Amino acid sequence: MQRKSSFDSAHIMYRSEELVSAASNRYRITVQVANRAKRRRYEELENFDDPTMKPVIRAIIEMSDELTQPEIIGD
C-alpha cells in the first residue's frame, strides 16, 4: 500500500538546488538543513502537524522560503 504524498519531488529538488546555489558553502547549508530538520523532528513529537511530510523536506521548504521571502524572517 503506497501513501500519496502531498508534495512534488521535482519541486523539492528545485528548492534544494536553489538553496544550495544561494549558499556560499554547500557543506554548511547541508548541516544547517540537517540541524533544522532534527529540531523539527523533536518539535513534531509535541505537535503532530503533518505526519506525511518528513522533517528534512519541511526544513528545505522553510529555508528556501526564507531566502526568497526575507519578510517572513522574524527580527
Q: Would you give an account of this structure?
A:
The chain has 75 residues and is mostly helical. The protein is built from 3 helices and no strands. The chain has helices at 9-22, 26-46, 55-68. α2 (26-46) packs across α3. The chain is globular and about 35 Å long. It starts with 8 loop residues before the first helix and ends in a 7-residue tail after the last helix.
What do the pLDDT scores average to?
79
Number of continuous helical runs: 3
Envelope shape: globular
The number of distinct β-strands equals 0
Biggest sheet descriptor: none
Radius of gyration: 13 Å
Distance between the termini: 45 Å
| Overall helicity | 55-70%
SS-based class: mainly alpha
List segments where confidence is low: pLDDT < 50 over at least 5 consecutive residues: none
Name the helix and strand elements from N-terminus to C-terminus, one letter apiece.
Answer: HHH
**Beta-strand percentage range:** under 5%
Entry keywords:
3 helices; single chain; about 80 residues
Q: Mind sketching the topology for me?
A:
Blueprint: H1 9-22, H2 26-46, H3 55-68
Helix pairs in contact: 1-3, 2-3
Brief write-up:
With 75 residues, the chain is mainly alpha-helical.
